[in-house]
Backbone:
């Protein structure tokens, strides 16, 4: 309608200039996730860097506020306001159908990122793509870096029983990265001859404060027994570090955020794995460019990760 543009306040441009403007709509699952915020900053910067005399680029970033319904409505507003490509970080990675239908009706390609739709959903239409790290490989890398640390630091086995008593902090039920990091980090540790004894797995919603609470409870329950914390991401690892204080417990995270890299340098975390938001942003932008140029692009575009130690 007439006022779609006013509602969002961006995008709609008619007349001869329309061709010269690329309008990109980015919608995240929440506005409270530091990793995602870093990623969207990169995305925006990389898109802006593509701007030139011939082409203006307008980026609009919104959040679904942890509610799939709300995210769907924001997508609809962006489409109404006029939009050439959508970058979507789904709230519920298993529920992209409505967004797919709306985008398809207007022939707007969708690049999903970080929260991966299942293969069948990606196959619903040819202009659907996914940019993110390879979840399984990421879990393997995290297990490798943890094993390397443990195998070269015998003191990690505090009670010298030949086993590593561990707790694991999980991001979110159903998230491909949480599932694979949990499964493959543990499998890889075992493959690298670390004998593990599981004490507890706790969900902490990728969140630092929640992880600190969980970890405080685990410490009061298991005390000195805990030798290792495997965390699905750095924010939760840093929450654990907070709870651990001066106790001797090894913490391994994921993302290599600035805070986590500082904690690794300070010896508060053993290691992390870099999930590179800059490269992810660049990959998404490159993908968008190719799609809009009519080039053929793979539906799933993995972005590499990298081990980080002191
Ligand atoms: C990151 C987490 C982030 C989550 C959000 C994961 O890939 O490692 O830090 O909270 O994505 O979807
Ligand atoms: Ca032990």
Residues:
């Amino acid at each position: 309608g007439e006022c779609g543009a006013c509602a969002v306040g961006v995008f709609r441009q008619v007349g001869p200039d329309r061709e010269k403007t690329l309008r990109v709509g980015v919608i995240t699952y929440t506005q409270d996730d530091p990793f995602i915020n870093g990623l969207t900053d990169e995305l925006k910067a990389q898109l802006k860097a593509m701007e030139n005399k011939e082409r203006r680029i307008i980026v609009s970033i919104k959040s679904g506020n942890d509610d799939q319904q709300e995210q769907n409505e924001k997508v609809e507003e962006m489409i109404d306001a006029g939009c050439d490509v959508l970058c979507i970080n789904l709230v519920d990675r298993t529920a992209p159908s409505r967004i797919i239908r709306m985008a398809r009706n207007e022939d707007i390609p969708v690049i999903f990122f970080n929260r991966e739709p299942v293969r069948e959903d990606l196959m619903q239409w040819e202009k659907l793509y996914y940019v993110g790290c390879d979840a399984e490989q990421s879990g393997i890398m995290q297990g490798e870096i943890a094993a390397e640390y443990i195998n070269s630091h015998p003191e990690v086995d505090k009670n010298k029983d030949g086993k590593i008593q561990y707790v694991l902090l999980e991001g979110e039920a159903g998230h491909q990265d949480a599932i694979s990091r949990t499964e493959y980090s543990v499998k890889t540790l075992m493959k690298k001859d670390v004998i593990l004894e599981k004490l507890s797995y706790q969900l902490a919603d990728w969140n630092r404060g929640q992880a600190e609470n969980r970890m405080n409870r685990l410490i009061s329950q298991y005390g000195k027994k805990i030798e290792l914390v495997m965390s699905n991401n750095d924010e939760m690892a840093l929450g654990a570090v907070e709870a651990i204080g001066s106790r001797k417990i090894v913490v391994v995270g994921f993302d290599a955020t600035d805070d986590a890299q500082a904690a690794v340098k300070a010896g508060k975390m053993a290691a992390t794995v870099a999930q590179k938001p800059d490269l992810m942003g660049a990959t998404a932008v490159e993908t968008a460019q190719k799609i809009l140029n009519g080039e053929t692009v793979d539906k799933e575009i993995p972005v590499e990760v990298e081990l980080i130690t002191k």
Observations:
- Residues 26 and 87 are 5 Å apart (CA to CA).
